[in-house]
Request: fold
Amino acid sequence: MKNIQTTNTMNNHRRTRKPSRAAGLMGMAAFAALAAGASPWALADDLGWYGGANVGRSAATIDDGRITSGLAAGGLGTSSISNRDRSTGFKLYGGYQFNRNFALEGGYFDLGRFGYTANTVPAGTLDGNIKLKGFNLDAVGILPITDRLSALGRVGLNYAQARDSFSGTGAVSVTNPSPSKSGTNYKLGVGLQYAFTEALGMRAEVERYRVNDAIGNKGHVDLFSLGLVYRFGGKSQAPVQRTAAPAYVAAAPMPAPVVVAPPPPAAPPPPPPPTRVTFSSDSLFDFDKANLKPAGQQALDKFASDLKGVQYDTIMVTGHSDRIGSHDYNMKLSTRRAEAVKSYLVAAGIAAGTVAAKGVDGANPVTQPGQCKGSKPTPALIACLQPDRRVEVEVAGTR
Reply:
């Protein structure tokens, strides 16, 4: 009976395959990471701690050629090999989302059990198995697609423990039946996440774990999984669109002229004050957007209609942000919103030469000092600062 040194149960590539699936996964993960780095630290309602669990199908690549050559080195031929390259895997994870595009995530994974059975000549069998489990730490890039759907890309490290077991019958004798080893390698992944509510969502992911087996070989295991993620502090009801009723403030009535009876000549009336109309940003735009909503267009149509027949000198459109976020980002967003309102008023018939637009940071809030406490972008703080997010349209020189 021949003594057989245990051979590897997995291999990093099939020998006939040129571009590996790892290259494709790495490219997609890099794209999502770049999107996270290039995007400003915009605010979202789904920041903070979360946890979840995924379960699905795991797949390993088993190198039959190395098994055959290992048996041949022991003086044995191989008549057939049957592979067990599919298993059930799962992962438990938790993380913290720092902004709408980046999170840090860690967890525990169990990729399942894989193996093979080789029949030899002279008659005998070699049976090999491997179990893989461990811990991971990932950087996760998040790319919002819609209000509920986001794409995920991840790159990180995994610390996996590989426990091999080998047994032989007939002509096969195994010298090391139970080797084990732990090691650190990279992992990659892509996926999609859909939010049912602000607190509960679903994830579908494809991940590649680079692992070492217990006898010095390197390979990979792919995990195709589906699971649920729970965000702590999120609302359990379905997320609602932030659409307040169009906040249209009617123009103040013109003051009646003061007439002084003769003999002194009648004093001229004071110049009419500028007419200022304030629109809530949430009524005109979606949160963190600068595209006018249908409800906002209706409010601007009514405003433009009210100006027909009124003589005036200039119209100044000013976009205001709240105090959350960086100065540069708030200036860009408030300016884009002011320009969007200006363009719509010009399209509605107001002379372009009479309309100007500008954006300002949260330097002129409507809320009072101390009214809205905190600095982190929690849902409560965002809701409290809603009056500060507005667009003011000031009509000067009306007569």
Notes: Residues 7-45 have pLDDT under 50 and may be disordered. The domain at 275-396 is CATH 3.30.1330.60 (60s Ribosomal Protein L30; Chain: A;). Helices lie at 21-38, 64-73, 281-284, 294-306, 327-347, 379-384.
